[in-house]
Design a protein that fits this description.
CATH topology of the largest domain: Butyryl-CoA Dehydrogenase, subunit A, domain 3
Distance between the termini: 38 Å
Shape: globular
Oligomer: single chain
Radius of gyration: 21 Å
Strand content: 15-25%
């Protein structure tokens, strides 16, 4: 894959090459075994932290690499060529976990929580979703009530990524109990091990076996008053701004996965012989490869453009939602075509495409379902025209 056509800088190409080499040499040989065992890639996370990839977008003054949005996306894309689980772990940490602290944290909060996270010493998680409120994030029921110098949190969170390994959680809770909808929500920093804070078992999922997600429970969980993150009752705008950047990361995962499928399907089509010819010589196969490559390229170009918008301070919420919606659905289509090209072998673990096929579906659900994305984009369109 040529890099110059994307107008990347020398530094960006260097980071991309580092990520590709790590993915090919370290991730690829172990991903199938880890997936089968539902094992968390702890060693790989540690190595990525040492490379500075867990704090790619965090400024150097807070322990990060200060690489910028596009570099972070390039890293995610390369990791996802082999492991959606590993890329999703990084997204949950770097995108949703640390970004609220970077955007709204006090200097003391940044020093205590952001610096070790950016250095890869601890993982972070963002706790918004609840059993009764996924897409309707304004309907959360978890509450936080100020009692003297402490906040008392009660409630339950669901499908929170990186449980069991995260040490720092950014938790959304209702602080104005009379407020309607998304009003009156605040964000808090809660440390693992805090009394009253219980971390449940990982869900047994179809997708991303090596990425752990599950429930969090808060029962009279007390945290210091100063662990309020950002402004009181202004948590919704804060985490929605982080979701926009998270959608770019999910898009990178989708494009990286699709690229991984294209590479594997192309190699197979060149080697597999039917009726005396490699199957890539038949239009039924070659046209599928052409469609896969075209969709990947279109989505990649859009994603890189939106990343540059973010880096230039241009509003990008609509475009981030667009590319997340398009790329996640594209990835599902590409995985389907890839499995079809391999035929029966596409269903076998050894050839990996069955894992990509399973993992792809999650992308149309996490960070905003396809239906919610369409609602967001249509609202932008209706306001603009």
């Amino acid at each position: 894959m040529s890099t110059n056509k994307y107008f990347l800088t020398d530094d960006q190409i260097m980071i991309q090459d580092m990520a590709r080499q790590f993915a090919d040499e370290v991730v690829a040989p172990t991903v199938t075994e880890l997936d089968r065992a539902h094992a968390f890639p702890e060693d790989q996370i540690k190595q990525l932290g040492e490379m500075g990839f867990l704090g790619a977008e965090v400024p150097e003054e807070y322990g990060g690499a200060g690489m910028g949005c596009l570099c972070h996306i390039l890293i995610m894309e390369q990791l996802a060529r082999h492991s959606s689980s590993l890329a999703s772990i990084i997204d949950a940490h770097s995108g949703l976990g640390t970004q609220p602290i970077l955007k709204a944290g006090t200097e003391a909060q940044k020093q205590k929580y952001l610096v070790p996270a950016a250095q890869g010493k601890v993982l972070c998680s963002f706790a918004l979703t609840e059993p009764q409120s996924g897409s309707d994030s304004g309907a959360i029921k978890t509450t936080a009530v100020l009692d003297g110098e402490e906040w008392v949190i009660n409630g339950t969170k669901a499908f929170i990524t990186n449980i069991g390994y995260s040490k720092t959680f950014v938790v959304a809770a209702k602080t104005d109990l009379e407020a309607k909808g998304s009003r009156g929500i605040s964000c808090f920093i809660v440390e693992a091990g805090t009394p009253g804070f219980t971390i449940g078992k990982p869900e047994e999922k179809m997708s991303n076996h090596s990425s752990y997600s599950g429930e969090l429970s808060f029962m009279d969980c007390r945290i210091p008053k100063e662990n309020l993150l950002g402004e009181l009752n202004r948590g919704f705008p804060l985490f929605m701004s982080c979701v926009d950047e998270g959608r770019l990361a999910i898009s990178a995962v989708a494009i990286g996965m699709a690229q991984g499928v294209l590479e594997r399907a192309t190699r197979y089509a060149k080697q597999r012989v039917a009726f005396g010819h490699p199957i890539c010589e038949y239009q039924g196969i070659s046209f599928k490869l052409a469609e896969m490559a075209s969709e990947i390229e279109a989505n990649r170009m859009m994603l890189y453009h939106v990343c540059r918008m973010q880096e230039q301070g241009i509003p990008f919420a609509k475009e981030a939602t667009m590319v997340k919606m398009l790329s996640s659905e594209m990835c599902v289509r590409v995985c389907d075509k890839g499995v079809q090209i391999l035929g029966g072998y596409g269903l076998c673990e050894e050839y990996e495409l069955e894992r990509f096929y399973r993992d792809a579906k999650l992308l149309t659900i996490g960070e905003g379902t396809s239906e919610i994305c369409r609602m967001v984009v249509s609202n932008h369109v209706l306001k603009e025209y």
